[in-house]
Design brief:
The chain is an alpha/beta fold. The chain has 2 domains: about 60-270 and about 480-495, Aldehyde Dehydrogenase, Chain A, domain 1 (3-Layer(aba) Sandwich), CATH 3.40.605; about 275-470, 3-Layer(aba) Sandwich (Aldehyde Dehydrogenase, Chain A, domain 2). It has helices at about 10-15, 60-75, 80-95, 100-110, 115-135, 175-185, 200-215, 230-235, 250-260, 285-295, 315-330, 350-365, 400, 420-425, 440-450; strands at about 25-30, 30, 40-45, 50-55, 140-145, 150-160, 160-165, 190, 220-225, 245, 265-270, 275-280, 305-315, 370, 390-395, 410-415, 430, 435-440, 460, 475, 475-480, 485, 495-505. The protein binds 2-aminohexanedioic acid.
Length: about 525
Amino acid sequence: MSTAVAGTEINEVLEQLGIKEENQGASTGSHWFNTRGEKIGSYSPVDGSLIANVNMATSTEYEASILKAQEAFKEWRLVPAPKRGEIVRQLGEKLREYKEPLGKLVSYEMGKSYQEGLGEVQEMIDICDFAVGLSRQLNGSTLHSERPAHRMYDQYHPLGIVGIISAFNFPVAVWAWNTALAWICGDVCIWKPSEKVPLTAIACQKITAQVFKANNIPEGVSSLIIGDAEIGKLMSNDKRVPLVSATGSTRMGKSVAESVAKRLGKSLLELGGNNAIILAPSADLKMVLPATVFGAVGTAGQRCTSTRRLIIHESIYDNVKEILTNAYKQIKIGNPLDENNHMGPLIDKDAAEMYKAAIEKVKASGGKMLVEGDILTGEGYESGCYVSPSIAEVENHWEIVQHETFAPLLYLIKYSGEVSNAIDIQNAVDQGLSSAIFTNNIRESELFLSQAGSDCGIANVNIGTSGAEIGGAFGGEKDTGGGRESGSDAWKIYMRRQTNTINYSTELPLAQGIKFDF
Ligand code: UN1
């Protein structure tokens, strides 16, 4: 096993990122609140070692962050949007500077491969670039009034505080999707990262603080709260947080949505997926192979876009099965910082146990394990978080197949006849995030993309389910929560819309022709 990042070397990475033990559980800008909260340890799933202890924030620090954010908002909303874009541009530059150490820390703290850690930081850079351009395009429409000498238009104003709850699997990119847009829109952000990956969050906060300090931006524009689910609950119930953007499980999302809806706030939810690739008879199998393997075992199956189901036409089923089972034998599992490995560990031992339990459930349901994964032991696997991937033949309607198992467990499902049968199978789950078809038949691909096709937020042709670009709106339907983040016009959720009607005549005509003499 490679010891690319261990002991002294991880200390170097932490030092480069300015992370020291005195880091506290809540911060606005570069100011860290004193905290009386408990300490949590951040343990690397790579080698099981304790990277650092971090203080958990309490409700007192939460309250202090809200007050600072409210104060900062009064100033930040008055900064012209392109000027706010300039700050985000500088953040993109800083992220370029820190890409390697931050990518390394993402890999070491979360367990994804170094390449994917770098890819995640690249997503942050990309969304910053996107947001810079967008800062000059927060456009509304000019509308025609029914009254003479009247003008009507709509415009967008910032909302205020955006609460961000992020998951462990994309510990930095999802925060950046939200903040880069929220900031150019004039909002201020309070971030509650997953307590499984607090150090990458502290690193982001420190990098941001450098840019903000150099530009005299009020500290409360960027706040970080390291805490448990209680902090998420405070945020969801807090009327002072008009928008809560939450990424994670459907169960968590439902609870956030309920609390936010009760106070008529807005929520942006990006929750679980149960993503399928349809393989039609004409599928180009040499493209299918890398797309499927990356989709199913990349990030050890811990992307919300990971490929969970392959829906394969019966005419190519046996062939695909053979190619895939052979390919799975070549997968190298180990330290994700060693570039020879394809797959790193799961996030923690609980995740490994959950994976084992899911395999047992598949077998108990009558599933046939073509490749049976297990928890790995022995040299290099001491953390207890490494598993080998699985392929199982199942039926789509089984209970276990309805659930998102956040691990490298791939289901093979056979279909016969027309592609519409495969589409029905793919849609017959509760989640609706990402979907794909491999076909060279335009009739099949167009049907898949039509209103009678995939019911997911993302539908791809001859591309896998994971690895979306930031330029498109990202998110999905049904139990995935309905939210859209990052590209396209996703910025609109971060703003409030206002319709303005201006009368430049000397009369006061009423709409709908109503006469009211006074
Ligand atoms: C997630 O897993 O929450 O499309 C986000 C992808 C990445 C983002 C995944 N760009 O796989």
